Amino acid sequence: MAYDGELNDIVAHFEGVAVSPSAEVEEDILNEIRHNTPGHETWQGNGWIFHCGDGAQFRGDATEETIANASEESKAAFAEQNPHNSWDELMADYRPGTGLSVYHFTCRHCGVDLFLWDCD
Questions:
Q1: Is pTM, for the whole model, over 0.85?
Q2: How many domains does the chain have?
Q3: Is residue 110 part of a domain?
Q4: Which of 28, 40, 50, 98 is the most buried (most CB within 10 A)?
Q5: What is the DSSP letter of 55?
Q6: What is the pLDDT of residues 58-113, one digit of tens each?
């Protein structure tokens, strides 16, 4: 590493719950995401989702189709992570590129789609 910088300021979401990542994920995985994984642009600062003990794969902005076809498991993970926000209410008017941003991740092990949201 030429510089002592970080590409991602990790706010970990482990299986749907915001946690201190070091308690749930091996340090080498955290370092890979911090130092070697390109970050994603957000309104309030990027977070990362962890699932099955590993960093989930960032897929970009969610599409309307991805939101409409989200599984019950995806919605349950979202509800655990966002106890004060209803999936149905929040996603009802979601359109990519508007004031509500939804970031799509996929677990690299079990394949569940996972989502973070942010707004301006």
A1: no
A2: 1
A3: yes
A4: 50
A5: E
A6: 998 999 999 999 999 999 988 887 888 889 999 998 998 888 889 999 999 999 99
Q: Tell me which of 91 and 31 has the higher pLDDT.
A: 91
Tokens found for residue 12 = 């970990």
CB 48 within 8 A of CB 55: yes
Q: Is residue 1 part of a domain?
A: no
Distance CA 105, CA 50 (A): 9
In order of 15, 76, 86, the CA distances from 111 in angstroms are 12, 15, 23
Alpha carbon distance 21, 5 (integer Å)? 18
Q: How far apart are the first and last CA of the chain?
A: 33
Q: Dihedrals φ, ψ of 49, to 5°? A: -105, 135
Q: Is 5 a member of any domain?
A: no
Q: What element of type H or E holds 27? A: helix 27-36
Q: Sort strands 48-51 and 12-14 into parallel, antiparallel or unpaired.
A: parallel
18: nearest Cα among 60, 53, 48: 48
Burial class (CB in 10 A: 0-12, 13-18, 19+), 37: middle
